């Protein structure tokens, strides 16, 4: 059973999400929070698998709540998905830096919401496919003075290549096709990279790649 916590200051929004999620045999909403402070407290109390977190809430906002949850070692197994009104807004990159595993727009289709919860619960990161590359293009340029990280020295040449493609927004299947690998091999490379760099998931890997100056916006489209 996938245990979900809903954090949104709008009662009707929470009710709508609960109706969709509780209708599934493998998903259960264990708690609801109306602000970030409640979200942190209830996450510590219930230890859900996934927190669906609105960004703009009164008092402690979703960004700060995400930072607290991601920074709490006792909540290492909790994944936060940011809910945003717009497919790309000023909060999203900050949320990913704070430790979110991805984001969804609030008007997403029910089937996409369910898929997102399941994807994140099994440990994968979620960046809505329709806006992933736009997100990267929009926010990667905001990184001020990126500096190479010594942790990159632990990666093989192939792992660096795979990491760069992850950061460019490619899926495992797309990486496999581009590098002429099997999807399973591409997935194994990604898992090893995350272990070596000590990042939580794919979303954090994207952030790390840009902040360590490994790649720059538009890298994938540059002549090679």
Please report which band the strand proportion falls in: under 5%, 5-15%, 15-25%, 25-35%, 35-45% or over 45%. 5-15%
Query: CATH class of the largest domain, please?
Result: Alpha Beta
- The percentage helix is 40-55%
Rg over alpha carbons: 17 Å
What is the 3D shape? Answer: globular
Could you name the CATH homologous superfamily of the largest domain? Response regulator
List low-pLDDT spans.
219-224
Give helix and strand order, one letter per element, not per position.
Answer: EHEHEHEHEHEHHHHH
CA(first)-CA(last) distance: 46 Å
GO molecular function: DNA binding
Protein name: DNA-binding response regulator
Keywords: DNA-binding, Phosphoprotein, Transcription, Transcription regulation
InterPro entries: CheY-like_superfamily, NreC/VraR/RcsB-like_REC, Sig_transdc_resp-reg_C-effctor, Sig_transdc_resp-reg_receiver, Tscrpt_reg_LuxR_C, WalR-like
Helix and strand arrangement:
Blueprint: E1 2-7, H1 11-22, E2 27-33, H2 36-46, E3 50-54, H3 62-70, E4 79-84, H4 92-98, E5 102-105, H5 110-121, E6 126-127, H6 132-139, H7 157-167, H8 172-179, H9 183-197, H10 202-211
Parallel strand pairs: 1-2, 1-3, 3-4, 4-5, 5-6
Helix pairs in contact: 2-3, 3-4, 7-9, 7-10, 8-9
Organism: Prauserella flavalba
Protein name: DNA-binding response regulator
Pfam families: GerE (PF00196), Response_reg (PF00072)
């Amino acid at each position: 059973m996938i245990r979900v916590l809903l954090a949104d200051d709008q009662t009707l929004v929470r009710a709508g999400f609960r109706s969709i999620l509780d209708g599934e045999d493998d998903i259960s909403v264990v708690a609801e929070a109306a602000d970030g402070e409640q979200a942190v407290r209830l996450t510590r109390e219930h230890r859900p698998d996934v927190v669906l977190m609105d960004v703009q809430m009164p008092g402690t906002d979703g960004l700060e709540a995400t930072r607290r949850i991601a920074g709490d070692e006792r909540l290492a197994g909790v994944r936060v998905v940011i809910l945003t009104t717009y497919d790309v807004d000023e909060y999203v990159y900050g949320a990913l830096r704070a430790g979110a595993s991805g984001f969804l727009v609030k008007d997403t289709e029910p089937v996409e919401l369910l898929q997102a919860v399941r994807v994140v619960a099994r440990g994968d990161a979620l960046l809505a496919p329709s806006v992933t590359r736009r997100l990267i293009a929009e926010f990667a340029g905001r990184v001020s003075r990126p500096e190479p990280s010594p942790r990159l020295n632990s990666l093989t040449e192939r792992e660096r290549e795979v990491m760069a493609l992850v950061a460019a927004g490619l899926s495992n299947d797309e990486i496999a096709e581009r590098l002429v690998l099997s999807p399973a091999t591409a997935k194994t490379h990604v898992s090893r990279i995350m272990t070596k760099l000590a990042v939580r998931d794919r979303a954090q890997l994207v952030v790390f790649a840009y902040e360590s100056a490994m790649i720059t916006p538009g890298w994938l489209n540059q002549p090679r």
